[in-house]
Amino acid sequence: MRQRLLVAGLVFVCLAASALALYTFRLDAELRARFDGVRWALPAQIYAAPLDIYAGRRLSPNDVVHELRRLGYRARDTVERPGTYALRGDSLELASRGFQFWDGTEPARQVSIGFGDGGIRGITGPAGNQVPIMRLDPMLIGSIFPKHGEDRVLVRLEDVPPLLLDTLIAVEDGDFYSHYGIDWSGIARAAWANLQAGGVVQGGSTITQQLIKNFFLSSERTWIRKAKEALMAVLLEIHYSKEEILEAYLNEVYLGQDGPRAVHGFGLASVFYFGKPLGELLPEEVALLVGIVKGPSYYNPRRNPQRALSRRNLVIERMAGDGLISEPEASQAADASLGVRARGDRGTSQYPAYVDLVRRQLQAQYREEDLTSEGLRIFTAFDPRVQAAAERAIREGLDAIEQGRKIEAGTLEAAAVVTSVETGEILALVGGRQAGYAGFNRSLDAKRPIGSLAKPLVYLAALSKPDRYRLTTLLPDAPVRLEMPNGTVWMPENYDRELHGDVPIFEALSKSYNLATVQLALGVGMQDVARQYVLLGDDTKPAPLPSLALGAVERSPLEVAQLYNSIGAGGFVTPLQAIRDVQDRMGQPLERYGRKLRGGPDAGAIALLQWAMNRVMIDGTARSAARYLQPGALAGKTGTTDELRDSWFAGFGSDVQATVWVGRDDNKPAGLTGASGALQLWARLMASLDPRPLDLYGAGAEPAWVVPAADALADTACMDRLLVPYLPGSAPVEWAPCARQSEQGQDNSFWERLFGS
Amino acid sequence: MKYFVTSLLLGLLLSGCGSLRQQGQNEPVWPYPEPPVVEDDGRNHRGSRSREQTAPDTTTSDTKPFGTRPWGGPAQPLPEEPEAVPSFSGPKNLRDDAGPAAIALADQAAALRNQGDLQGAAAQLERALRIEPRNAFLWLLLGQIHLEQADTDQARQMAHRARSLASGNPYVLGPAWRIAEAAWRAEGDAAQAEDAARSAEQAELSQT
């Protein structure tokens, strides 16, 4: 009996040991699979366009300093460490950070940038050499992380400042380099505390154990879990070096929460709290990050600054006590403020509208899990300077309109899309009045009737037939009555409900006369009008109904921006794009979205249209823009829809296009025309972008002095004459009654054209 | 002889690009000693090729960007001065027409192209075009890259864009039509290619 018991006991012990061994084996396999394979799901990181700096660029010292501040560069007396600068009069000393771009490495540079003549005069390197062009590191504007997911910026151990490593080890795990995963004295201390408390209240966790906990286990505090954690910690130490474990920890540890986004690792935390890379942290900033490890929510420096401050100073004391920093350094650090960026500051995930656009463009090509886990690096055309101008124009513009028109504050909404005319790149996107908050992205999703924004396409269709139409062809602004196929009768009216008689084509556009436009559209043919949408890069050809002429077609601000960007680009259509290129997590190029050109409408017809759209600014529906900017050589068009529900303006110079929509989310009348609403925002925006002028008499057009109301040539004897461009062979040949009709008169007009009188 | 002079002047356009080689082929195509060619296309090689091959090739192992060459200097030694005095006084090549930043980027593009990295070269040229969007020579270079990538449609579009910015400059128009010619030929459209070739020859005539 005793013997049987003994055998049974032995069998049991053997079984238990085997089970434990098997279990250990399984844990070991799990551990190694996790550690050797992809360690982290890395959200795709989205970068703004880097700032190109070169002689001749129209940038002021302030423009560059603004950009440097956005990137977390610090003003210093001595400019040596990357990420510092000093502005001395017309000269900017700069130590730039290097960056691995898609198309090559931009080295960290130490340069002096000279300003003058309204721009950059030159860049001088340390040896007095001229640098033809350099670019700053690009700002991280967001990442594509899964819902309630982790976000991180990976760092390599050698890129982490030694002070951070030493402080972390001193505070979290003093014996890190000597223990085998478990710190027995620490555990004894914790066990005693737990026994006294009658439960698990304190962990004697080493860095290795904390890593295991973060990696595999829930934060549930039980003895079983602690035992498993300890076992795995020992296994981890057997397989991996201290350096590998430390690097993993630096990237894994949870350091804060940003809405649905969990901030993991010191790399992202440095950007999240201080807006700069890890390598540039000051001692007090290192101390704060290390201090936060203990309880990212409890020591949240934004929500609980006092707690965070005392925790930080505790860490600073420890740093000084361990000799990591000198006493004077320590007291200087302890006196410093927390230095955390304010919540409203632009860190990551502060440009939700643009990031949303990038995500949608990527979703066509990548699987969602690749976007949220493969650590792709996405480089975009996003221009923080333009974005800031657009957001400010919308904020201030809407406030001013609501106050000026006694509209209930906060009821108006707006969206804006700014594009580069020449490249078709989307520079900025505002999805709503509160641009920093994710939500309904009106720039992409608010599909509204475009009203009179549709008119330029009618005129483009007409001007593309120079044998039938020129800018001064007279149109009857007369009543229209159309019986539709479904039996209803369509009788459009002018906005002012008046008739204007015979008007030249360009004036019908600049004054936005509905009846003349419908007459013209019917004369050209609705099929031809509809075809212009396709020619200008629209994805869907609208139904060729007569009401199309007045904008009974729904488009988002982004889609309108495509149409107007193409008009601005003068005959070549570039599909709008946000993404330039994509790298994998190691910085290897994956994909490039190169420039694409497509033949568009006739360049000559476009030039005439641009001229007419300039008249909109000079003496048409948009003349009030002159309050904000010189409308001299800009072009655009107002749009207003039924009962003043939508207020639109879209327009361009030769380099930049902007489309602005103003209205209400509930689709109730906003009480604004295109001119009293969107135009006011557009003009503020364009004024701060300082667009380049259009060439209003270019693309082979031949200007002639004419009397527009007579569609006939003019000379100096004519009072109401205007210099109008015509395609070769299509200018009027008759003289207006006011002209002296002499050879001399013709000579004179040529003479004066040269003078520009 | 006329053709030879034309070739030389065409060469001036992309001055210094002579060190560059077309991906997948062994004959240098920058500067153009002949119409630009695309891969897998053997029909469009003109008679100048044999001369090109026998010319002392000091360039093929030269990986330096073309910025290290004298400005506007062709890669091949000039056997004689072009006999005609150019009547055109505008820019004849990128170096006549671009600022130092765009030239530096074009140099980088040339170096990348030299290493067979056409994507990288295109990226640098696009960067240069963001600085000088109306520089016809940059559009021509980008068009040539597209041609070498066998993207004939984009090659033609960019040549077209260059033409629209040419303001009558024969040093833009000639190469632009040559790129179009090569693109049509690669697509097997002999008639269009012939048309483009005629336009090119006309432009090349007014280069001298």
Structural description of this entry:
The complex is a heterodimer of chains A (757) and B (208). By secondary structure, chain A is of the alpha+beta class. Chain A is 38% helix and 18% strand. In chain A, strand 25 and strand 26 (589-592) form a beta hairpin. The two termini of chain B are 12 Å apart. The model of chain B is unreliable at 1-35 and 37-85 (pLDDT under 50). Chain B has helices spanning 2-13, 49-54, 94-97, 100-114, 118-131, 136-148, 152-164, 170-186, 190-205. Chain B is built from nine helices and no strands. Chain A binds chain B through residues 52, 54-57, 102-104, 130, 132-133, 420, 422-423, 570-572, 581, 589, 592, 594-599, 603, 655, and chain B through 99-101, 103-105, 108, 112, 119-120, 122-124, 126-127, 129-131, 133-134, 142, 154, 157-158, 160-161, 164.
In a nutshell, what does this entry contain?
The complex is a heterodimer of chains A (757) and B (208). Chain A is α+β, with helices and mostly antiparallel strands and 757 residues long. Chain A is elongated and about 130 Å long.
